[in-house]
Amino acid sequence: MAEPAEVVALPAPIDTLLAAAVARRFYLEQRSKVEIAKEFGISRFKVARLLDAAVAHEIVRIDITVPAEIDVPLGRALTERFGLRHGIVVDLARVEGGTASPADRRRSDRWLGTAAARLLSEIAEEGDVLGLDGSHVADALSEAVTRLPPCDVVQLTGVHGRDLAHDSAIAAVRRTAAAGGGGAFPLHAPFLLPDAVTAAVLRSQPATAETLDRFGLVTKAVVGVGAWDAPHSPVYGALSERERETLREAGACAEVAGHLLDAAGRMLPTELNARTIAVSAAELRGVTELIGVTTGGRGTGAARAALRSGLLTGVVTDATTARHLLRHDDPGDTARTAASPRSTEQGQR
Length: 349
What we know:
Layout: H1 13-28, H2 33-40, H3 44-56, E1 69-70, H4 72-82, E2 86-91, H5 102-123, E3 129-132, H6 136-144, E4 152-155, H7 168-180, E5 184-185, H8 196-204, H9 206-212, E6 220-226, H10 234-238, H11 241-250, E7 252-256, E8 259-262, H12 272-275, H13 281-285, E9 289-294, H14 301-308, E10 314-318, H15 319-326, H16 341-348
Parallel strand pairs: 2-10, 3-4, 3-6, 4-5, 6-9, 9-10
Antiparallel strand pairs: 1-2, 6-7, 7-8
Helix pairs in contact: 1-3, 2-3, 4-15, 5-6, 6-7
């Protein structure tokens, strides 16, 4: 008959020492409860109670050193509210604080990228063609992913920096492809060109064209979702003040893979599209699984716009953003409880 599972009181020093000895064998030496019981001549049930007591009386202290964890209920609420297939919410309470510094944002992007890597590993299948944009979270994903089935990996947006050979976006594509032993198709070309003619010439180059031809084959992709007018936005940083003002007047508030969205989630057609080397809006809509990962923008406007666009089938975000997205008191929020257009299209196929 099993002994009751009450926590053992530790009134005497010998009991404390016994609990410490049992805890050391279990937690540090990886011994089983049966082995420990045999050594000390006690039942395995008493071993279990001593282990509970060791924690309760702080003989053993358990610290979770990772400053983030997955909030499953919030993720489920996001999928139901916005008609998504995947909703991953990372609770960054121990990372976040007051005003986020650039270092804080980088750490947040790192944890969000790690969560996106986990999701991609779960949904990727052999023969998929995976797409990554040039965002910080895509870079973080590539460093965190450890296992993928054999898949080709395609870079969806050109390089934002000056080093066309060693940019982080190119490195991210290669690392991710290596995780599954698939082919890597980077873009050794700038994201934004001075004019449409120069962009057209670069698109015709054999190495660039080889990657561009694979855009229509991408089946699953991960892209960053950020505020287009944030200082770290590649589009915003490349524009003149006159071009920025024109886009502000058009209602631009979010950026996804180089495309701008207004608050209602509508893509804004601009002359920028002719000057960029990036996946097209039509090609983005053709991706079976498009996962958006929120980045260090201001507020939740960008994430809300991306969710309204119908582009995304999944989202990875932080708990603070998720709670704001789920509130019904946003004046511009039309509470979406039905499936997104993308979910409906997939269901009809």
